[in-house]
Amino acid sequence: MTQRVGIKDVARVAGVSAATVSLVLNDRAADRIPPSTQERVRLAAQEIGYAPNRLARSLRTRRTHTIGLVSDRIATTPYAVRMVEAAQDVARERGYLLFLVNTGGDPALERDAVAALLDQQVDGLVYACMWHRVLDDLPENLPADAVFLDARPATGGFPAVVPDDRGGAVAAVQELVDAGHRRIAFIDIDEEPPPVASGLRREGYLEVLRRAGIEPDPALHVRGVSDAAGGMAAASRVLDLPAERRPTALFCFNDRIAMGAYAAARHHGLEIPTDLSVVGYDDQQLIAAELDPGLTTVRLPHYEMGRWAVEVLLGARERPTDEDGVVLMPCPLVRRDSVAPPPTREPGRRRG
Hints:
Elements: H1 7-14, H2 18-25, H3 35-48, H4 54-61, E1 66-71, H5 82-93, E2 97-102, H6 107-119, E3 125-135, E4 147-153, E5 160-163, H7 165-178, E6 184-189, H8 196-211, E7 221-224, H9 228-239, E8 249-252, H10 255-267, E9 277-279, E10 297-298, H11 302-313, E11 327-329, E12 333-334
Helix pairs in contact: 1-2, 1-3, 5-11, 7-8, 9-10
Keywords: DNA-binding, Repressor, Transcription, Transcription regulation
Organism: Actinotalea ferrariae CF5-4
InterPro entries: HTH_LacI, LacI/GalR-like_sensor, Lambda_DNA-bd_dom_sf, Peripla_BP_I
């Protein structure tokens, strides 16, 4: 059996006392030990392969340097897994190990996951969701210092960060108005109950129309299933409107719906962006940048939200108060090639 390298071994190689090694390797040397001696100790530890006994350290400090992240489905969702990557990055930077539990949104499994992580004596816990949610029912064993990621409790009381869905919609629709469009359709998501983001993005859409003096046309707000087929069907409904009511631009709830809108445009003999401008939402990998032309869209700040949550949890960022409210992370517009001024002529209709 290989014998574990200990502090005394480091002390012997460095030519100092074990107490000096302990102070240096636990970052408690400060001004008490010359920098040259500290460097000699660290080099000796590296040379002989010394690794701290984390169990002994946790018993002494009452900290395990581990954190837990309980999620509903983000670990199995390609475009939201960036939140997990960010959480891992911050944990690694600060010397912590991240435990991730994916619960599938099962309340009983969530409760058991929280209990299991607390049994492991994690130093903190992040509660994360795949999409922006307002939560009425929380696990009753959730620790009071937990941080919420892409979700917020309906009753407040916890630090929480969510995307600024309303602000992102304002940026998207303003891009179309600035290009000269007046007939702008909103291809919304068809789900019951509607997700929080649906209402917020519609508010942003209506705000821009109101500021631009554009009277909203109820016929230009349609809903579709959240995939390419649903987007194609919903976009076709507004593209089939009479010429005087037909939109020259589409704001789509997400990039998958926008992908279907591209197909609907082709089916109607329309070229993007010459005849029809399209803006999506999410900046989803393998969709937005790969469409032809590339899709102008709004990026969800998954990575930034993940960093924020773990930095708050670990004290690297100031913990917001109840008065501060929920933190809204900006959703930036990503410009590509799917927006242009409205056509000056009546575009061709359906291909024969």
